[in-house]
Each structure stands twice: as structure tokens, then as C-alpha cells.
Amino acid sequence: MPPSSVSRCLRLKSDLKLIVGLGNPGVKYRFTWHNLGFLAVEEAAERIGAGWKAGRGEFLTAVGQYAGDKIVLIKPTTFMNHSGTAFRQAVDFYQVELQDSLVVYDDIALPLGTLRLRASGSAGNHHGIEHIILLSASEEIPRLRIGFDRGYPTDNLSHAVLSIIPRGEMSLVKEAINRSADAMLHYLEFGLLDSMSKFNTRQQGE
């Protein structure tokens, strides 16, 4: 059997989970609201002792083990609006079913720090997950949304999502990132439904 076939068989036989954090590459975007997905998967990678390196596509990857599964964490090197390119490359390379992936991203419609795990759904107003849905031809993609509603005007969402996180709110953001990593690892061990029950917090007035 050719080496490429052996490699593909190994990927198909492994218990593999793919987690893709969304964000924009580059130092200028690192601590913007739109990069909460990046920050969350970076925290998860640190917890499982996985280092980042170039992947087989337009993404960085960190590979480790957790709860008996091989975990592949991804950060696209495309910009946010083209996240679907990196997502499809990773899904195809690792031969992962959509239901065995998890996309992690920011959501301006949710209060700061609120988490929402879902098995499927529309893109809302988020262009990153919109492009992923478009290239996957399916909304049946598990996702974890991290809220950051700070009362920004709704007529200029681009400015809002690319705003630098205020220093005074970094402690709340770090708490949300830590809890997001908790949710990812819980999802890996106990599955989506149990994780939804545990981490889909409800804010007063929702």
C-alpha cells in the first residue's frame, strides 16, 4: 500500500475530533473581539500540551490527546470572511465528519461571557461561520459561540468586532476564554448534549 494510502487509513481509523477557532491572523487583530475563537483554542491547546505548527492547508494546527481521542485544534490563516476555505481543507485532510468537528467563534448578540453550544443553525450575522456553512453545504456543524455584547451600535458591526478589547474588560474575557476551554474539553469527553446542559448559561432577562 502506498504511504499516502497508509496515512489516510490511519486517519480514518483514529478517534479524531477537530476543533476550529475562528479569528484573523496578525498581531494587530490578536486582542480584538473577533479573535475570541483563536484565544479559546489557544487556551485549550495549552491545557492538552499541544504546540502550534503549520498545517496541511491554510491553517495552523495543534495536535494532542484528550479523553482517549486524538484532538486536532485549528486556527485558519485566512482572514475571517474566508474561514470556510481552511475549515474544508482540514475536514478533508483529516477525513472528519462534520458532526465530529466544533467551530468556536465570537457572537456580538450574546452578553459578554455567555456561551452557547449548538449542534447546528444558521450563521446569523457572523461571516466566518457563514463561509464555513457555504463551503460545507450544510448547517449541521456543531459550534460554540462566545458572547461579547457591549452595546456597540448595530449599524457598524465591522467596527465593533474589530475593536480592541478594553483593558478594563480583559479579566472578564479571560474568564470567558477559560470557561470556553472547559466547555471544549467537556465536549470531547462527554459529548455535545451534556455540554449544552452544563455550559449554555442563561443570563437574567434573556
Secondary structure blueprint with pairings:
Elements: H1 3-13, E1 16-21, H2 36-47, E2 52-54, E3 59-66, E4 69-76, H3 83-94, E5 101-111, E6 115-118, H4 127-136, E7 143-149, H5 157-161, H6 170-190, H7 192-199
Parallel strand pairs: 1-4, 1-5, 5-7
Antiparallel strand pairs: 2-3, 3-4, 6-7
Helix pairs in contact: 2-6, 3-4, 6-7
Please provide a written account of the structure:
The protein is 38% helix and 23% strand. By secondary structure, it is of the alpha/beta class. The chain has one domain: Peptidyl-tRNA hydrolase (Rossmann fold, 3-Layer(aba) Sandwich), CATH 3.40.50. The chain has a 7-stranded mixed beta sheet with strand order 2-3-4-1-5-7-6. Strand 3 and strand 4 (69-76) form a beta hairpin. The longest helix is centred in the last third of the chain and has 21 residues, at 170-190. The termini are far apart.
Name some characteristics of this structure:
single chain, 206 residues
Mean pLDDT: 89
Main beta sheet: 7 strands, mixed
What are the low-pLDDT stretches, counting only 5+ consecutive residues below 50? 1-14
Helical fraction equals 25-40%
Cα Rg: 16 Å
Tell me the CATH architecture: 3-Layer(aba) Sandwich
Query: What is the CATH topology?
Result: Rossmann fold
Q: CATH top level? A: Alpha Beta
Given helix and strand content, the structural type is alpha/beta
Number of E-state strands: 7
What is the CATH superfamily? Peptidyl-tRNA hydrolase
